[in-house]
């Protein structure tokens, strides 16, 4: 037989190239299988994935509306407190007008 480089004689066969090729093939096969699995998962759970990527912009814009909503709630609470104070004052005025009118007469 003629000289074929690595396979020139059987005693000095170098299998490192073949082992490297096998390892590389296994890695490529594994990458392809994982990619295929991720693709199937992405098709099945498309809404979850889109929600994950859609959250950061909404999170960035929500503190201001939440802040203003809380301000509106505080303002509403203050208005309700003032209304209850005015109702108490009006009821106190309605309960005491006789004594006030008697003292004024």
SSE inventory with pairings:
Blueprint: H1 16-44, H2 46-61, H3 63-95, H4 97-104
Counting DSSP H or I runs of 4 or more residues, the number of helices is 4
The total of beta strands comes to 0
Shape field: rod-shaped
Please describe the biggest sheet, giving its number of strands, its sense, and whether it closes into a barrel.
none
- Intertermini distance: 139 Å
Describe this structure in words.
With 105 residues, the protein is mostly helical. It has 4 helices and no strands. It is rod-shaped and about 120 Å long.
Provide a brief overview of the structure.
By secondary structure, the chain is mainly α.
Summary keywords:
105 residues, mainly alpha, 82% helix
